[in-house]
């Protein structure tokens, strides 16, 4: 239920161990470039540093090629409990690299995402997670969530903000009511349900509990709140 978010320059091994000491149930690595992870041994060693006590751990990859992501995931698989697909990064590098939230901006891009999820879920021994942002319309988001679940996504983290632009990525609080709508949509589905994590509006332990209550999510993912105070968990 208490999850440390993937953060470049923050959720590396030392901070993960500190967060676990204070109660984090699950931690993500920082964003890992899948192609470089496959090709560069030094990068691979640096980006997937782990140690006894650093579990359960999720490897958080970005990319847009199913075959490359599968190669990267297979290399990470022995060291992690799950592989996560970055579908939420709103920064310029994601725009230029066609990954993260920009890969979800069009129907064609979302079709690529679903192909990636199907490929990974069909060929890995560990589950496949996804981390998304809100699409422009709630109905679009709900439809995409259903498609991700049907493609094999085993757990979904929802950052309750829109992508925005590369220079303006935040406009007020996260829309936790839309995260609640995602949770309700998933719970309506028949068969095995996909757990949903809420991400956004967590600056304190009180905010964390409030987000759980407001969304009905299975857990809460904290980024900046945990950086300010790892004991938030």
Automatic annotation (TrEMBL):
Keywords: Flavoprotein, FMN, NAD, NADP, Oxidoreductase, tRNA processing. Residues 4-233 form the DUS-like FMN-binding domain. It comes from the Eukaryota. Its cofactor is FMN. CDD domains: DUS_like_FMN. It holds the Pfam family Dus. Transmembrane segments: none annotated. One of its GO terms (molecular function) is flavin adenine dinucleotide binding. It catalyses: 5,6-dihydrouridine(16) in tRNA + NAD(+) = uridine(16) in tRNA + NADH + H(+); 5,6-dihydrouridine(17) in tRNA + NADP(+) = uridine(17) in tRNA + NADPH + H(+); 5,6-dihydrouridine(16) in tRNA + NADP(+) = uridine(16) in tRNA + NADPH + H(+); 5,6-dihydrouridine(17) in tRNA + NAD(+) = uridine(17) in tRNA + NADH + H(+). Its EC number is 1.3.1.88. InterPro entries: Aldolase_TIM, DUS-like_FMN-bd, tRNA_hU_synthase_CS. The keyword Metal-binding does not apply. Gene3D superfamilies: Aldolase class I (3.20.20.70). PANTHER family: TRNA-DIHYDROURIDINE SYNTHASE, TRNA-DIHYDROURIDINE(16_17) SYNTHASE [NAD(P)(+)]-LIKE. Belongs to the Dus family. Dus1 subfamily. This is tRNA-dihydrouridine(16/17) synthase [NAD(P)(+)]. It comes from Emiliania huxleyi (Coccolithophore). The lineage of its organism: Eukaryota, Haptista, Haptophyta, Prymnesiophyceae, Isochrysidales.
């Amino acid at each position: 239920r208490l999850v440390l978010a993937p953060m470049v320059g923050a959720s590396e091994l030392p901070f993960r161990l500190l967060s676990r000491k204070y109660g984090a149930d699950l931690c993500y690595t920082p964003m890992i470039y899948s192609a470089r992870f496959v090709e560069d041994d030094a990068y691979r060693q640096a980006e997937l540093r782990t140690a006894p006590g650093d579990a359960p751990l999720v490897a958080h990859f970005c990319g847009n090629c199913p075959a490359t992501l599968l190669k990267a995931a297979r290399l990470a698989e022995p060291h992690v409990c799950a592989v996560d697909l970055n579908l939420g990064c709103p920064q310029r590098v994601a725009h230029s690299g066609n990954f993260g939230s920009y890969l979800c901006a069009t129907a064609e891009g979302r079709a690529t995402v679903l192909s990636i999820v199907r490929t990974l879920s069909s060929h890995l021994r560990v589950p496949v997670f996804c981390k998304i942002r809100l699409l422009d319309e709630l109905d679009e988001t709900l439809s995409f969530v259903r498609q991700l679940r049907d493609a094999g996504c085993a757990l979904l983290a929802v950052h309750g903000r829109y992508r925005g632009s590369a220079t303006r990525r935040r406009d007020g609080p996260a829309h936790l009511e839309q995260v609640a709508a995602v949770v309700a949509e998933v719970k309506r589905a028949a068969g095995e349900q996909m757990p949903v994590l809420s991400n956004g509006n967590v600056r304190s332990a009180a905010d964390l509990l409030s987000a759980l209550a407001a969304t009905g999510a299975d857990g809460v993912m904290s980024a900046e709140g945990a950086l300010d105070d790892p004991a938030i968990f």
